[in-house]
Write a structure and sequence with these properties.
four-stranded antiparallel beta sheet, five-stranded mixed beta sheet, mainly beta, globular, Kelch-typ_b-propeller, Gal_Oxase/kelch_b-propeller, single chain, 3 helices, Galactose oxidase, signal, Neuraminidase
Amino acid sequence: MTGNRLLRGLCLGWLALAVFSLPRALGAEPAKGARWSWFEVPDSAMDSVFDPGVDEQWRDRDGRKPGNSWGAIQYAWSGGAVSRDRLYVTGGGHGDGAHNGVLSVDGCGRWRRVTEPSPVWEPGACPDGYCQSPAGRCRYSRCTTLPDGAPAAIHSYNGLAADDAFLYRSGGSIWSHGNLGDGPVNWRLDLASGEWQPFPESGLERIMTNLVHVDGYLYQASSRGYGVFNIKRDQWVGKIQRGGFNARKRMVYDPETDRFFVFGDGMAAWQSRNHYGKTWQDIADPPSIVDERYLGVARWRRSIFLWHAGAELIRYDIDTGSWHALQTDGDPGDEAGVGTFGRLAVLDDRLVLVNGVNRNMLWLLGPGEQPPASACQVSSR
């Protein structure tokens, strides 16, 4: 008996030694007081691909302000969506600009002009009666389709999503009318050809529409309800005309739990994908940041990060359901007054923030993490 106890004691002792000798698991909370940091990627400002001689010709329809430049991507309630490690952004809309160009950036901060701005309808001009009122009066400012067949600029909010082939946009506040407008309100951009085409509408579209891509489907949420679009079949296969929420809140998806999460405008909740559009489960003890509108929200490394200018960066641990306020060095800026939306994103397994037309893209570095010494490899697209 004594020998068995001795053997058991030795085994337990070696087991304890082995456990405490293991390195800290990935995702473990760093030591108290450890600081994260925002790192500015050199030479990664959005305006590196602007053409001042051409782009500044874009004005509003009365020529009063330079709102119709690429700069509207930052200052006109614009979001973003990721496809194959590139973040696609587009701006303009309402009174901020007719400029409907699309830009993209990779994780190294290399920007690319994906589409060029379209010509707009001249005052009083209507395309063969399109966008006319019942009385025959031309409503050029309400047209969702421009002379070259591309869609008019919008405040895109959280209505952008992407897969490997297309950038999708739904709803939005159209230039210059400020409403959904007359004509198609759902569009997709072929990322290979640069051509726009409408795709079917659910009837739930609003100015502030949420759109998320998951496994060949688009999941839509608005104040009118919820919709599910089968991309391959090119049709809506599910629709619930009740509940819902607008793009003051941001919805993201976690593939490991097969859940959607929603944060912002007073909401912090989750829902299983197979129960989409039904009851949301509240997340306990949310921090005050969830009361803010138009948050930057992104899922990264088993956590969901919430950012709003002037507030602490918050990490929500998906697996434990716990909240963590992160101490950060570096200044990410304060330009989120018109929303961050999808411009807080994950590229090449890095959390990045696009938060200024003329400032560099930001990486979030973990405690003790150093930026790479070598130059980034530019992606193939």
